[in-house]
Each structure stands twice: as structure tokens, then as C-alpha cells.
Amino acid sequence: MEFPICAQHNEEFGYFCEKCDEPTCKVCIFTLHKGHNMSDLSETVAKKKKELSSTWEVYLRKLEGARKSVDNMENSLHTYRKKVYNTIKEIESEGEKLRNIIDKTVSDMAKELREKEAEEMKRVTQVINGLKSQLERGIQLERHINKALKLKDDTSMLISLKKFQEDMASYIPEVILPCEFSYLKGNAGSAHVHSMLGRIFFENDKSGRETPLEAKDDFNRNARKYELWACPLCNTERYIDRMDESERSFKTPRCCYGFMQSRGIAYK
Length: 268
Description:
Layout: E1 15-17, E2 22-24, E3 38-40, H1 41-149, H2 154-168, H3 190-197, H4 218-222, E4 225-230, E5 237-241, E6 254-255, E7 258-259, E8 261-267
Antiparallel strand pairs: 1-2, 1-3, 4-5, 4-8, 6-7
Helix pairs in contact: 1-2
Domain B box-type: 1-41
Keywords: Metal-binding, Zinc, Zinc-finger
InterPro entries: TRIM/RBCC, Znf_B-box
């Protein structure tokens, strides 16, 4: 194997300086590299090639691993986006169901009130009409009584007064009012909506988002705080009351011969 010529001494490189990590000629070893550890240049080149080949093989394996990682990540991202799309569709579908239920419930409640209103209107109106009729008869009766009292014939007066007594004893409808009712508003906070729609859990999330996705409203501030645990094997869920954050005796729940995994905080 031929090597380049040393420019300083015009001699062929034949050695390799271990300390300076460079080739040297036979003159360099006694001048610039005096006292340094030397090795045969051919052997050093062969050794370096072998080391490079080994390093290159390791690097190629890493590159192949990186390519596979890219493929896996791209596939995972595609699957993730598809899952997000399908999940949003499910949430929207559940939301539509809730809207339909709410619309029907509102319609049914309004219908119930209107039917009761019509019933009460009919009932009270009948009584009002009866009272008006009695008032009209009372006015007429008053005129007849005044006229009878002016009769000079006592017998005729007694007969008239007896009839008037019977008329005055006739039934006068009892005064009634429409039935009372009240409306107790429901506690329709966003947390209730979340509980009906379901929960979103972000596992191993690095974005700092809370797990599960929680609604921050007045209901949450008044609700009890629970930690949701789930079994990774059978998906059994268990809520643990965590209102007392200072509790030191808490033990991780178990299921299927192993520990359950925490899915975050929930409010109930």
C-alpha cells in the first residue's frame, strides 16, 4: 500500500502517531513526534477501517430504526387523527341525542303546562260564569223584593216573600282560584352535560392538559372530588373519594391480580 509523501521531509508516511492521531514519516518520529507512541501505518489503517465499518453498521441499524420509527409515528398519527375524527362524530351524535331529548322534554313540559292551563281556565271560567249568573239573578231578586214589600195585600206579600226565600237559598258557586304551581330549576351546569356526554381521557399527555377533561363551573365547586381508577385488563372503573387530599392511608386499588391505573380527577 502506497501512502502520500511527508511534505516537510519528502519521505513516505510509514507510521502513525497515537498521541497526535496523524501519520508520520521515518524522520518525523525523531523530530516532531519524538518520544510518542508509534504504530505501523498499514496496520493502523486496517484497524481504523474495521472500526469505521463496525461503527457504520451500528449507525445503519440506527438509521433503519429511525425509518421504522418515522413509519410507526406517521401511521400512529394517521390512526390518531382518524380516532379524533370518529370520536368527535360520536360526541356530536351524543350531543344531537341530548338536544333531541332536551327539546322533547321542554316540549312535553310546555304541553303539560298548557293542558293544565286549559283545564284550569275551563274550571274557573265555569265558576265565574255561574257567579255572574247569580249576580244577575240577585239584582232581579232585589227589584222583586222591593216591589213585593210595597204590596198592600199581606197574603200576596207572604207568598212572594216565601218564593224569594227559596230563590235566595239557591246554590251560589264557591269562589275558587287556579291551582298554584311552581317551577324548580334544574342544576343544568356544564359538568352535568359532561357527565351525560361522557369523558375524554388523555393518557401519557405531555401538553399539561388536565385528565380527564373537566368543566369548570359552579357545580364543580360544590361537587365532591373523586379520582377515577380503571383496570387495564377488564376496564372496570372505580371512583375513589379524594376530597381529603391530606389522606396518607390511601392505597392503590387492585383488580385482576394487579394494580388499577389512575385516569384522573372527576366530579360527581
